[in-house]
Structure formats: structure tokens, C-alpha cells
Amino acid sequence: xPSQPSKExxxxxxxxxxxxxxxxxxxxxxxxxxxxxxxxxxxxxxITYVPDQSCIELKSLKLYMWAYRNEGAFHEKVTNxxxxxxxxxxQPRKLTVVGDFFVRGGIGTIVTVTHDKSKQQx
Length: 122
Fold this sequence. Notes:
GTP Cyclohydrolase I, domain 2; four-stranded antiparallel beta sheet
């Protein structure tokens, strides 16, 4: 049976939870729809995080990002939602999500969301 898009992020235990290290995902083919025109928006996402107790499972991330393909979403909203969903799933020590949206109407948009667990607890 072929894979289907899903908003469920699967996780697995961090194999080196005693140290800080970065994991970076590069998503060069992200698409969603403009909520005003219904036209496709294209973006490249970079997701970098320092895991705490859990890591994001790669296939579930692919299916998660695919789930936006037919959704209307402003650039700012979708980037923040992706960050929120990752934070909810794994509570990373640090997270940066960069949505680099391709030029439309002569303007490109880059939205960067950051999270630092140590600053949240202070």
C-alpha cells in the first residue's frame, strides 16, 4: 500500500541523550497552497535541532511535510506550526526551523523560528 500524508510525527529514543549534538533535515521540495489564491507556494525548509530524550523519525517527517501539499497556509503560520509540532513531539533542547519560500510577485520570504528549552525554563 502506498504511503499517505500524515500529521503524526513518530519518535524514537535519543541514542546519545547525555550529550548535545545537532540533527539537520533539509526539505527542498515543500509545497503548500496560498490561502488567498489557492496557487501553490514552494519552499525549502531547514530544520535543525538538538534532541533531548527523543528524536524525530525521518519517514514520519517526510509524510508530515507532505501533508501540507493541499493546505492553505500563510508562510509565517506554516513555519510556526511546524516548529510547534516538533516541540510538542520531542521537546528538543534547541530547535530552528527556516522556511525559505520561493519568489512570487518579485518577493521571496524567509521565516525563521527558534526555540531554546533552557530559556523556556528560566
